[in-house]
Each structure stands twice: as structure tokens, then as C-alpha cells.
Amino acid sequence: MSRRIHARRTEGVDKNVWVEFTQLAADYKAVNLGQGFPDFSPPKFVQEAFCDAVNGGPQMHQYTRAFGHPRLVKSLAKFFSRVMGHEIDPLEDVLVTVGAYQALFCAFQALIEEGDEVIIVEPFFDCYQPMVKMVGGKEVYVPLRPKVEGSLSSADWTLSAEELASKFTPRTKAIVINTPNNPLGKVYKTEELQMIADLCIKHDVLCISDEVYEWLTYDGNKHVKIASLPGMWERTITIGSGGKTFSATGWKVGWVISSGHIIKHMKTIFQNCVYHCPTAAQEAVARGFEREYELFGSPESYFQQLPAMLHHRRGKLASSLQSVGLQPIMPEGGYFMIADISSVKVDFNDDSTKDESYDYRFVKWLTKEKGLATIPVSAFYSPEHGKEFDKYVRFCFVKEDDTLDAAEQILKKWSQGK
């Protein structure tokens, strides 16, 4: 065809860090600490629930309720009513989606119009930016910054109250936050969330809160839902993930919890997009939440056991990085740890990457030359702030001990000049 085929909204959003670096890891058969998925199995109780669902009769292989399997929306509403301190209507206030990714897509499509400004706190999960662009919104960025040079914990990275307040204008429609944060691992404290909430209420702005890692917090840190703060239920879109909750990312079961007057618009997008999510996977996630409701807060709860297990692996990775001169920023939550690579001098000897940022060049070198795959942190920043943070790379520690041991051996050989 001689005429332009593509829609202009696809321009400038075609690059994807996951496509690029996942393929690079596969090409070089690297130990993959890049992409955020466990290489261990989900807990047996949800595996058994999935198998039971598949063998549960013909209805488990057919369409269920479009906006969420009845058993799942009921279990989500019951569970999170207790967590949020607000009575959630399973049919009006919950929408089940194909992963948290689609939940985000529905939120931006349903709520953001051309010309609306959306404040995005950096570092951010990389799909926020293209999703805002595709609906004609304008991204406005404000970064978390370390309070002091050489900060060693994600808790030391904070928002400037003055800088954040300056980003709100009459055109601001929403702010997007992610807690625990990917890639940093920051868990927002109540007072930090209250600062954001006060601005949302003052300027009549929506809050899209990506909370897929909510059960993964360490060292006594507690996840707080911004929707639970006074005046925030009716303006907050809370996004969750069955994959992250039960270590089953391939199931692609996500959800949105919000006031029905917001959810109804997201349902419009959903019903004209995918219409329906896999029935058996929804049934299994529902049974998982039913179990966790009964065990909530007890040592038998998976929400207690998983972070306890990952606490050890977080420490293991941090030690491995420190042993070769990479300074980890200890995460308070989530799947990931970023590390400062500025003290390590590498001769990349690769002209094909000379125009790229330092962290991109480092990650490509580490993957190709040493066989260890990671992700550059500047991919989680806007162009205006990326250079400020290109001395960091992201590692995933939600892996088997054998995988982390293999990564440690690669790092040791590198430090020994092998």
C-alpha cells in the first residue's frame, strides 16, 4: 500500500525493554536475573486448585461472567474489604482483567482524554508511559531521589513535597504510583501516601495505584493502600495481580478495585477489548484467596511464607553484588534490587552501543561477555531524568537458589578477571 498503514498513536512507543533484553538473554543463554518472574513453582495449594478447576466439569472450560468469575470477585471483595477497611461490592467495585497489565490499559483508556496530564512517579514500570501516550495524554514526571549520595536502602529515596506539588495543574487528571516500587523496591510510608492523597483531594485528581507486589515486604515494612486513607476510596484505582500474589505470572489474572462509578467506565473498555479472562485460572486464584483469608496473619499463610523465603534470597544477591564492588540498594519490598555500577570500570569495546546510555551498554556487555542478564534502570525513567540514573542496573532475586548461585559464580569469575 502507498498510504500510511499505521495509526500515529503507535509512533514513539514501539521500543520495549523486555522484548529487547529477554531476547538478548535467550540468544546468549545467559543466567536471567532480568525479567521479573519466579523460576520456582507456585504453592501446591493453588496448583491443586488449578488442576481441580480444569477437572471440574464443562463449565470450567467455558465463558464465565465477563467482568470476573463470581467466585473470584466475591473472594477478592471479602479479602480486601478487611484490608482496606471499606465494604467492597463484588459486582460493582471489582473488575478482573488479563493480568495487571490489562488493568492499567483499561484505566488509561477509560479515564484519560487527549490533553489530560498524568503525573508519573519515577522510576516507573515502563508501560505507563506508552499507555498514556496512546490515549493522547501528556506525561508529567517527578522522580524519587536518594536523600544523600550513596544511600543504601530504598527507604532513603523520597519525593520532594515541593516538586510534586508543582506538577499539579488544572489539566492534571491522574497520578500513577507503584508501591512496592519496581525497580527500586521502595515501600511508601503512610505519611508519604498522605502527602499524595492531600494533593489528589486538593486538585480533584485520580490516583492509579499499582500494588502488584503488595505481599512482598521485608524487614518489618508494611504495605499501606492509599485507597484506605480518608477521602481516597472514591478517587483511587487499585491494581493487583494473581500472578505476583501466588507466584504464577503465566496465569495472567489481574484485577482492579475501585468505586463502582469508576469501575463502570473501565468495564466499557474491557467488554470491547478482551471481554473475558480464563475461567480455570480465575477459579484457582479465588480458592487461593479463600485459603489466605482464613490463614491471614498466621505463619501458615503464603503471604507470610513467601517474603520470609525471599528475604534470604535478597540477602544472598546483595552479598554477591557487594563482593564484586557493585553497591546494592536494599529494597524494602518487591522482586528486585538495583545496584550502583559507577565504581566498576568496564571496557565495552563495542562500537554498536557507543550512543547508548551507560547502563544499557553495561547490561549488554554483562549479558554477552559474562552470561548474566539484567535490566538497565534508565528504562524506568523519562528521557529528561534517565541520564541522572543510568549508573544503576536492576537484578531480580525471586529465583531458585541454584539460579542465584550460578549468578554468583559468574560475578566471582568476573572479579577474578576470568
From TrEMBL:
<dbReference type="GO" id="GO:0030170">
    <property type="term" value="F:pyridoxal phosphate binding"/>
</dbReference>
<protein>
    <submittedName>
        <fullName>Kynurenine--oxoglutarate transaminase 1</fullName>
    </submittedName>
</protein>
<feature type="domain" description="Aminotransferase class I/classII large">
    <location>
        <begin position="30"/>
        <end position="408"/>
    </location>
</feature>
<dbReference type="InterPro" id="IPR015422">
    <property type="entry name" value="PyrdxlP-dep_Trfase_small"/>
</dbReference>
<dbReference type="GO" id="GO:0047804">
    <property type="term" value="F:cysteine-S-conjugate beta-lyase activity"/>
</dbReference>
<dbReference type="Pfam" id="PF00155">
    <property type="entry name" value="Aminotran_1_2"/>
</dbReference>
<dbReference type="InterPro" id="IPR015424">
    <property type="entry name" value="PyrdxlP-dep_Trfase"/>
</dbReference>
<keyword id="KW-0663">Pyridoxal phosphate</keyword>
<comment type="subunit">
    <text>Homodimer.</text>
</comment>
<comment type="pathway">
    <text>Amino-acid degradation; L-kynurenine degradation; kynurenate from L-kynurenine: step 1/2.</text>
</comment>
<dbReference type="GO" id="GO:0016212">
    <property type="term" value="F:kynurenine-oxoglutarate transaminase activity"/>
</dbReference>
<keyword id="KW-0456">Lyase</keyword>
<dbReference type="InterPro" id="IPR051326">
    <property type="entry name" value="Kynurenine-oxoglutarate_AT"/>
</dbReference>
<dbReference type="GO" id="GO:0005739">
    <property type="term" value="C:mitochondrion"/>
</dbReference>
<keyword id="KW-0808">Transferase</keyword>
<keyword id="KW-0032">Aminotransferase</keyword>
<dbReference type="InterPro" id="IPR004839">
    <property type="entry name" value="Aminotransferase_I/II_large"/>
</dbReference>
<comment type="similarity">
    <text>Belongs to the class-I pyridoxal-phosphate-dependent aminotransferase family.</text>
</comment>
<dbReference type="GO" id="GO:0070189">
    <property type="term" value="P:kynurenine metabolic process"/>
</dbReference>
<dbReference type="InterPro" id="IPR015421">
    <property type="entry name" value="PyrdxlP-dep_Trfase_major"/>
</dbReference>
